[in-house]
Amino acid sequence: MTGREVVLRLEGITKRFGKLTANDAIGFALHRGEVLALLGENGAGKTTLMNILFGHYTADSGTVEVFGKMLPPGAPGAALAAGVGMVHQHFTLAGNLTVLENILLGTRPLFGPGLGRAEARARVERLSRDFGLAVHADAKVKTLSVGERQRVEILKALYREARILILDEPTAVLTPQESEALFATLKRAVAQGLSIIFISHKLHEVMAVSDRVVVLRHGKVAGEVATAQTDRHLLAELMVGAEVALPHPAPGIAGATLMELRDVSTPAEGNRSGLCRVSLALRAGQITGLAGVSGNGQGALADLVSGLIAPESGALLVGGAEVSGWSPRAALAAGVGRIPEDRHATGSIADFTLTENAVLEGYAQAPFSRRGWIDWRRARAHAEAIIAKYDVRCPGPEARIRLLSGGNMQKLILGRALEATPRIILANQPVRGLDIGALTYVQERLIAARDAGAAVLLISEDLDEIRVLSDVIHVISAGRLSPPFARGSKTPAELGVWMAGQGFADAA
Amino acid sequence: MEIFEILLSASFWAAVLRIASPLILATMGELICERAGVLNLGIEGIMVFGAFAGWIAVYAGLGLWPGVLVAFASGAMFGLVHATLTVPFGLSQHVVGLGITLLATSSAYYAYRLALPQVTSPPRITPFQPLNIPVLSDIPFLGPALFSQTALTYLAFASVAVVALVLFRTPLGLALRAAGENPAAVEAQGLSVTALRMGAVMVGSGLMAVGGAFLTMSAFDSFFFEMVNGRGWICIALVVFGAWMPGKALLGALLFAGFDALQIRMQQTPMGAHVPYQVFLMVPYVLSILALVLMSRRVEVPAALMVPYNRGER
Q1: Residue range A122-141: average pLDDT?
Q2: Which of A428, B161, B208, B238 has a CA that sits 20 to 30 A from residue A201's CA?
Q3: Where is the chain membrane-spanning (chain B) (predicted)?
Q4: Domains parsed from chain A with CATH numbers
Q5: How is chain B split into domains, by residue range?
């Protein structure tokens, strides 16, 4: 392995953003025909490193060498011209253009006459056959699925005769089947002499697809190992710097019912199912898990609990009393802590600072508001407290939240919800897209909140997560809710029957 | 019915093309800007300045075509100011655009007063004359309706074809469309979003100015204050009406011009004696709003329109 030709070498790459050192003297080499996994938690510096390689950022120090030649820093075209292709986590495709047009973009002299579509189409079709990347060349990109868009990105790189492919968290947006197809494509590419850097924080993928692993932690190289000589536990340790134990909580002690739904129905919206005569009790000291295939009413239930919608029929009781005039404000006043499903769209405001985001729910009340004026000093102190207590890695409380990685954003949202000491906690997909470190942390906090007497409603599409954390499990299907199942009383297969909607017919 | 008589007269259709010409030119200019991701609200003022610049250049002794070039260059200059403020500096496109309209309009009036301090009625120039296209202009009805226009009208129609060809058939057009949809995709290919957008705004503004110059150099033969009279704003709406497609925008311009030519003629019918003329003046605008409502339901707005692009920012 070490005898093989080095195609890409990074040496001493350092990059600082304010007080945060995102990359600290990172160096490693990529050999011809191998898949090198770059493993690290969110915020470990992987994406920053790739932005430096591609000239989107200029490193404070360090060099990038491709096929024996130094790349000039801060020149976005240089890496491309040298034969490095990148598939970004956020695709760089124009939705109003066709697949072929997106591939052609930038490949011809700007002021030349035609686009050479026919010739390009033939090449694209050949590439898509050779690498198993099925996609329709004349389809508009905006009509494609996420998996298809990713194939377009890979085709784009191959069309530019990339010999090195870099994939930034390529499976984060894919279904398991799409991931398998991607891995097959990567194997074909390597067999044809390409070299691949596969950036990920998912251990099982790294084990499945890579030849060698470089682990990043806090912006430094924490270790470099051959995949064949390691296992998931060793990698996880390198990644987080300590032995990892996923939480296996003791059963909670159920207390009073804090929120209750009696025969509640809500209307469907678009593709989203409404609720159909749902009865549910959320009890203090319990995590209630909601399992189900997405789009079966989880959204409606989450919106109902967090105050975004009110019941169309049936009764909603908080603390034993029926509520009327249910609204987001009323939910907050009733002590509902909310961890929304989409931290970007509904959990935060991207261009607001951490401080502003930290008081989004409490800005209008004491202590952050006095006689109608916001007390920014207190707000800032609050944000600093959350940053310290919840280990939010960021440049500071005045940084805009969009600069944070998903895991750190989620920690701030978690901190915002929990610091208000809610009695009822809605956790909708709280660990989606998080790495192990952040995931365990968030789960432990939810368990701690439960033990302190909160009622937690956990919504997740991950059945394992539901089964490990929940004291009581309900299954939702087409807006109907199953009876409660006690911890450990149903196997995944048995829950699957309910998820498919069959248990309901039997019960009725 | 008088309306059928009007619709069957060749002079009506000739008027439609004439009224549509400045709208077409300026709409193509705006369309180029917006396709690249920049809303150019300077259009109204740039048209005023173009009308003035082309006319004064000819009055000062230049030929008609050099005058058109002067108008184009003056528009491109205002485009450069607009693009500098909105593209590299990323300022609000609304504020900058309205500022450019005020600046360009008052610059034109100021320059007019400087150049002609004593006159009460503006001097006339010899404008573009109708150009009878051989053979085609001899066809009964169609000939006088379509093929006896001035060179600038033919230029306006040609500009639609050129814009469409460039946008959809060349690498440059592809890069422009991508810059207005997802600039990051353009940057990722090593192309400069800044250069593309600035270039688009300058060329687009030049076309707007030529649209303005049509009024002083082809439709009339002199420069009056208020002569552009909101045509720039109509063009903004026409771009939306045309769903950012050159051909559909042309259709929109013809439709609007049709209503306008119709209302002028309706004023002279017996019905015009009973209905206040302001009602007729409203007709093209009311019908345009209706058409806009019906047509723009499912249009695809360039996704990055009005979004400044900063390199290296997420």
Answers
A1: 91
A2: A428
A3: 6-26, 38-58, 64-83, 95-112, 146-168, 200-225, 231-256, 277-296
A4: 6-240 (3.40.50.300), 246-335+422-508 (3.40.50.300), 348-419 (no CATH)
A5: 2-114+151-298
pLDDT of residue A416 exceeding 70, the answer is yes
CA–CA separation, B89 vs B84, rounded Å? 7
Give the whole-angstrom CA distance, residue B204 versus residue B29.
4
Structure tokens at A504: 């309901």
Check whether A39 has a pLDDT greater than 70: yes
- Sign of the alpha-carbon torsion through A138, A143, A145, A150: positive
C-alpha span between B207 and B68 (Å, rounded): 10
Residues forming beta bridges with residue A20, ordered by sequence position: A17
Q: Token pair for residue A172?
A: 């984060």
Of A77, A96, A110, the CB nearest to B171: A110
Inform me whether the pLDDT recorded for A106 exceeds 90: no
d(CA A77, CA B186) in angstroms, rounded, equals 11
Neighbouring CB atoms inside 10 A of B10's CB total: 15
Residue labelled with tokens 């760089």: A92
Q: How far apart are CA B234 and CA B215, in angstroms?
A: 15
The predicted-structure confidence for A466-490, as pLDDT tens digits, reads as follows 888 999 999 998 899 999 999 989 8
Which phi and psi (to 5°) does residue A121 adopt? -60, -40
Dihedral angle over CA of A173, A120, B187, A216, nearest 10: 40
What ipTM describes this predicted complex? 0.85
How far, in Å, CA of B70 to CA of B233, rounded?
23
Residue A245 has a CB neighbour count (10 Å cut-off) of 8
Based on the number of CB atoms within 10 Å of its own CB, is B258 exposed (0-12), middle (13-18) or buried (19 or more)? buried
Distance of CA A276 to the CA centre of its chain: 30
* List of chain B residues whose C-beta atoms are within 8 Å of the C-beta of residue A99: none
Give this prediction's pTM.
0.74
The pLDDT, as a whole number, for residue A1 is: 45
Whole-angstrom distance, CA of residue A196 vs CA of residue A202: 17
Q: What is the pLDDT of residue A493?
A: 78
Residues of chain B with pLDDT under 50: 313-314
Between CA A348 and CA A304 the distance in angstroms is 19
Where helices occur in A45-95 by DSSP H, the ranges are 46-53, 76-81
CB contact under 8 Å between B170 and A51, yes or no, is: no
Q: Which residues contact A489 (CB under 8 A, 6 or more apart)?
A: none
Instruction: Give CA A384 to chain center in angstroms.
Output: 24
Beta bridge partners of A195: A164
CATH class of the structural domain B2-114+151-298: mainly alpha
Computed over every residue of chain A, the mean pLDDT equals 88
The beta strand positions in chain B, using DSSP E, are 131-132, 148-149
CA of B277 vs chain A CAs: smallest distance (Å): 44
- The pLDDT value given to residue B314: 40
- Give mean pLDDT, residues A102-121: 89
User: Of B112, B36, B122, which Cα lies nearest the Cα of B79?
Assistant: B36
Q: Which residues on chain A place their C-beta less than 8 Å from a C-beta of chain B?
A: 51, 54, 56-57, 76-77, 80-81, 86, 88, 90, 92-97, 101-102, 104-115, 402-403
Q: How far apart are CA A246 and CA A440, in angstroms?
A: 6
Percent over 90 (pLDDT), chain A? 53
Strand-pair partners of B234? none
CB-CB neighbors (< 8 A) of A93 in chain B: 182, 185
pLDDT tens digits along A386-410: 999 998 989 999 999 988 888 889 9
Question: Measuring CA to CA, which residue among A402, A460, A411 is closest to residue A439?
Answer: A411
Whole-number Å distance between alpha carbons of A430 and B139: 74
Asked whether the beta carbons of A23 and A15 are under 8 A apart, the reply is yes
